[in-house]
Every structure is written in structure tokens, then in C-alpha cells.
Amino acid sequence: MSLSLKWSIQRITTKFEFKIARSAESYYDVVILELSDGEFTGFGEAAPSTRYEKGPEAILELLAAKKDQILDLPIEGAENRQAQLEQLFSESYSLQAALDTAFWDLFGQRQGKPLWKIFGATKELVTSSYTIGISDLDIIPDKIKEASDYPILKIKLGTDYDHEIMRAIRAQTDKVLRVDVNEGWKTLDDAKHGAEWLAEENVEFLEQPMPSNQLEDIAKLREFSPLPLVADENSVRPEDIPGLVGAYDAINIKLMKCGGLTNGLRMIELAQKHNFDIMLGCMVETSIGISAMSQLGSFARWLDLDGNVLLAADPFSGVGNQAGEIILLDKPGLGVVKR
Ligand SMILES: [Mg+2]
């Protein structure tokens, strides 16, 4: 039996411009993979972040150049396959993730089992947050209204008007908030003030308050901070985790950083070993990427799997999201279909 692989770029548009401390976009180009054995088709998605790698065109070049090696990869034996993916595509974490996901989806379908079951996970998931990107103050009421069904909001900060943003949000809602600074606070003093201030604002945790290369400052902040600190830009690959002990309380795992479900499972194991709480996150992604990460959902204390519900139109359907409740399917593999 031989495999075949198709790929295409898909432009996905967000409902609102998606702005964080370092970037602002109203659409993203993602690479969609379809890996077929002639009977079943596994889906994969690469949503490259410019924080970590080049864009989708570079991924298409890699796919064209190394298609034969990809089609020789094993459907079973994920650890070995992942090691080969890392050698072939060391420059693109999101392409590693897309291929690993497509192989897992195909494997699950051939086994006739949903991946969450294969991974030993359950369908009991905590409620996911919904992200409010950095906004002009006059748009905040619209955004909070748009998110009215979601009980937990994740707020992006790291601007020179963070206090005004929080004031505008708190004027609209008293919901539990989580705050992601995306490396936006550059000094320990700013971060200390921020942590102290947000602890008074019914905020549950603080994600990546300072630049990832200021780990010593972050460790000092943690000694002081009333809020738990979650690593995101500091928690990219499995090998990053041991170095975060003492600086963070939790890690945010994303497929597009870590290189797929196989490494996601490794990061979960390592996080448990080093006593980190686990959050599962995402980029702006379609239901392929979100359905994939949701398969590991029951291993997490916190979920931030809203990439697909931030879209104006999702080209795929997979796991459900009803007011932040992620609904896993009983279908084999990821259970994703094209809309
Ligand atoms: Mg983050």
C-alpha cells in the first residue's frame, strides 16, 4: 500500500483583527495536508508563527522538495517518525505538526478509534477560554459582547495602555480573566507592578509576562507574584521544560511550536515529571489543528483552544465548541471533515 499527499494554502480570516504584543493580523495563511492510503485520508494543518519560523510559502517548498521522504515515513511508530520529521524539517515546527497530525489521523482511522482513546485520554475536558486580542478601547464593548457565551476570557496585554484596556473590559464584565502578555513587559519592575495589579482584578494566571530570554527576571518575578506564571514563548519544545523549573508554575503546549501530538504527549509527561500545571493552547487555526490538540485535552488543567472559533468561517468541522465546552467526537482519528 502506498501513500499519497496533497497540500494547499488556505486563507483563514478572523472575526476581528487579531492583535497581540508583537503583531496584528486579520487573516492567516495556513497549509492544509491530506495524507491518503487509498482508503482513508488523514488531515494535517501547519499554522506557522513568524515568532518561530518562516511563512507558508517556505512550507510548500519544503513539501515539494521532500515529498518522497515523507511518503516513506511509517504510519506506526510515532516516536521514530517524529525523530525523522525533526531531521527532515528542523526549520519548521508547524510542518512537523501538520505531518505528525496527518499520520496520527490516518492511523486512528485505520484502527477505527478516536485518537483521544488511543492516547489514553478521556472526553472530560475543562472549559476553554476565549481570547480577546489587543484592541482599541472603543472596540472592546463589541468584543466582550461577541464573547458573551464564553465564561472564561483570555486577555492580551503588553501595551502602553494595559490599564485602560483592563478598565474597559471590567466595565463590561466580571468574568474570570486570564492574561497573556506575550513577552510585552520588558523590565522586572513593570512585571512586578503588573502582577500585583492584576491579582486585584480577578485574574487567574499570568502568561509569558516578560521576554523568553529574561528567564532570570521571570524567576525573580515568580518569587514575588501573587499569580501563577505560565510559560508560552519559553515553552516551545520538550527539551525546554527542565530549564523552566523555578521560573514558572505551568507550561502552555501548542502543536505548532512543539511539532505535533507525539511531542505534545512528551511535553505532558515531562510537565508531570517536573510538577508543572499544563495548559493546551493554539495559534489561529482551523478545526483540524484544534481537533488535534483537543485529543489531549483531558490531560490539561487549562485549555485555550479557541483558534477556530475566532474565525469568520472555518473551512473544516471537527470537535465542537459550545460556549467554551469542547466536545470530542467518537469518530475514528480526528473526526474532521471539510465543510
Ligand atoms: Mg501565549
Number of strands: 15
Q: Which percent band covers the strand fraction?
A: 15-25%
How would you sum up the global shape?
globular
Largest sheet: 8 strands, parallel
Low-pLDDT residue spans = none
Structural class: alpha/beta
Q: Assign the CATH architecture of the largest domain.
A: Alpha-Beta Barrel
CATH level-4 homologous superfamily of the largest domain? Enolase-like C-terminal domain
**N-end to C-end Cα span:** 28 Å
3D architecture notes:
The protein is globular and about 60 Å long. The mean pLDDT is about 95. The chain has two domains: about 5-110, Enolase-like, N-terminal domain (Enolase-like, domain 1, 2-Layer Sandwich), CATH 3.30.390; about 115-339, TIM Barrel (Alpha-Beta Barrel). By secondary structure, the chain is of the alpha/beta class. The protein has twelve helices and 15 strands. β10 (about 275-280), α12 and β11 form a beta-alpha-beta unit. α8 (about 190-200) packs parallel to α9. Magnesium ion binds near residues 180, 182, 207, 208 and 232.
